[in-house]
Amino acid sequence: MQALKRTAPVEGSSMPVKVLKNEGRELRIRVVGGGHTALQMFRSRLNDRDDIEYANYFQNHPDLDDPELYVRTAKGKKASKILKDICSEISKEFSSIKL
Known about the structure:
Layout: E1 17-23, E2 26-31, H1 36-47, E3 52-58, E4 68-73, H2 79-95
Antiparallel strand pairs: 1-2, 2-4, 3-4
């Protein structure tokens, strides 16, 4: 398989989020313009961790509502920190792609 090489950084690839709930172990965010692909990646990575009790995303009406991601951690863990850590991991993985 041929390695992909990236010649220029991808700019403007952020996903705006609105924090709906951030109370220690629980986090609920609305991902503006988010799709199933990105949210499934977050849900999968979150649920692979031992310090996550539950993680899922929901989308009410696909044309009218932005999807929401909900995370609940094990006792003593902060959901926002874990999500930030996962964002960093994913960012590092994608930044190493060479097109």
